[in-house]
Design goal:
Elements: H1 3-20, H2 27-33, H3 38-49, H4 53-71, H5 76-82, H6 88-99, H7 103-111
Helix pairs in contact: 1-2, 1-3, 2-3, 4-6
Length: 112
């Protein structure tokens, strides 16, 4: 397998994640989609994109959540569930870590 082929495969796996990040996604499924073992997919993804596939999924979900929070007046709990987080606490913790502000404070900044 050439480097070019591996790069094509890993980009295919990333495209799979991009299309399915709001669903319950297993990295094993993305690896299978691009015909790589889970180990090789994880290792190559991290090498190529500088972030683990799991972190990439979380980041995609958080940026989508930020967009939803800024455009809609949905409760934080609904946004957390809509964007694939198990609970509001996990969502809030991840949101604060990514953006440096709590989701409630983020919403409040639009109300002012």
């Amino acid at each position: 397998v050439t480097r070019k082929d591996l790069l094509r495969r890993i980009n295919s796996g990333k495209a799979y994640i991009d299309a399915n990040y709001l669903c319950v996604i297993d990295i094993k499924d993305a690896a299978s989609y691009c015909c790589l073992s889970e180990y090789h997919f994880f290792r190559l993804f991290r090498k190529v994109f500088g972030i683990s596939p799991y972190q990439y999924v979380i980041r995609k979900r958080l940026f989508h959540a930020r967009s939803v929070l800024s455009e809609n007046q949905l409760p934080i709990s609904d946004v957390a569930m809509l964007t694939g987080f198990a609970n509001v606490s996990a969502f809030s913790k991840s949101f604060r870590k990514q953006f440096g502000i709590a989701p409630s404070s983020f919403i409040d900044s639009f109300k002012s």
